[in-house]
Amino acid sequence: MAWTVAPEPHDSPVAAALWRAYYTEVSDRWYLLHEGRRTDPGELEREIAAQSGGDLAPPRGLLLVARYAGEPAGSAGVRLLDDAAAELTRVFLHEGMRGRGGAALLVRAAEDAARARGATRMILDTRGDLVEARALYARLGYAETEPHNAGPYAEHWFAKELG
């Protein structure tokens, strides 16, 4: 089976389904770790609704969707922060699709998209409990850096020169 990665409108049904899957997983992981419970359904709906994804709309943003055998399997977003820096965000693969190389393809496609928009550096943040994400970024050449934002869930910050 082959992977494909292509731009997707940030407000498409595919984007909405992937955002819901991503947010549900990372939120549940946080609550299970810190409070021993899953995310309250009402809170989940409020948080999903509050994050429209509009920051991933062209020309300053881009949402990429990975498909495996034609089926949506994951996503990654790119936001231009200034003339040189882009932020990698919402990197996600459905659990059953992990370990097949799709995450690296998504990140590389996001890097290519950032370069095409003039960025020379990619930055990102992630949480400490997302150990798979941290391992992926390190494997792809991202170096841990000092904090570049004060996000409430940001615990690790990474950067990579895009060259």
TrEMBL record:
Which UniProt keywords are given for this protein, alphabetically ordered?
Acyltransferase, Transferase
Kindly give the PROSITE patterns that the UniProt entry links to this protein: GNAT
* Gene3D superfamilies found in the cross-reference section: 3.40.630.30
A single MF term (Gene Ontology): acyltransferase activity
Residue ranges of the N-acetyltransferase domain?
17-163
Database matches in InterPro entries: Acyl_CoA_acyltransferase, Bact_Acetyltransf, GNAT_dom
What class does this enzyme belong to in the EC scheme? transferase
Its EC number(s): 2.3.-.-
Q: Does the keyword Acyltransferase apply?
A: yes
**Lineage: superkingdom:** Bacteria
Protein name per UniProt: GNAT family N-acetyltransferase
| Source organism of the structure | Streptomyces fimbriatus
